[in-house]
Amino acid sequence: MEERGKLKADNIVRLEVKLESVTHTPQSRAQAHRSHRDRSQAKQAKQGGGLFTTIIGLVIIVGLAYLLYGKYQRWQLAQQPVITPVQTVVTQPIDSNPNSYRCDGRIHCGQMNSREEARWFVRNCPGTKMDGNNDGEPCENDSRW
């Protein structure tokens, strides 16, 4: 009996199981060691083949991923709408009629509406300040034209 009135399982003998005394001899130990070593070598041989199989599997997976990515790119390209550039012709009326210009006191490039108008003013109106080097080409540094 144990403390607090509980039963204690002590000196129990199982009738069906015989106890065998294990005695190890040097021969039995050597045989057990050989058996363990043989199992380890067999396991290593399987693992070596496992590495080769793993590499082949990875190569196959990478190849399939590459093919699927290419197919996805082609599909996505086909899904995009075709954009055709629309060409619009912008026409600006060029007033090349010399009768439409008149000397109205404008003398600087910033007061002109076109290079042609500036040329007409330089040729026909006195006191213009648009041709700095007197070569007949007005407003050479004006980036608007």
TrEMBL record:
<keyword id="KW-0472">Membrane</keyword>
<dbReference type="InterPro" id="IPR008613">
    <property type="entry name" value="Excalibur_Ca-bd_domain"/>
</dbReference>
<feature type="transmembrane region" description="Helical">
    <location>
        <begin position="49"/>
        <end position="69"/>
    </location>
</feature>
<keyword id="KW-0812">Transmembrane</keyword>
<protein>
    <submittedName>
        <fullName>Excalibur calcium-binding domain-containing protein</fullName>
    </submittedName>
</protein>
<dbReference type="Pfam" id="PF05901">
    <property type="entry name" value="Excalibur"/>
</dbReference>
<feature type="region of interest" description="Disordered">
    <location>
        <begin position="22"/>
        <end position="46"/>
    </location>
</feature>
<feature type="domain" description="Excalibur calcium-binding">
    <location>
        <begin position="108"/>
        <end position="140"/>
    </location>
</feature>
<keyword id="KW-1133">Transmembrane helix</keyword>
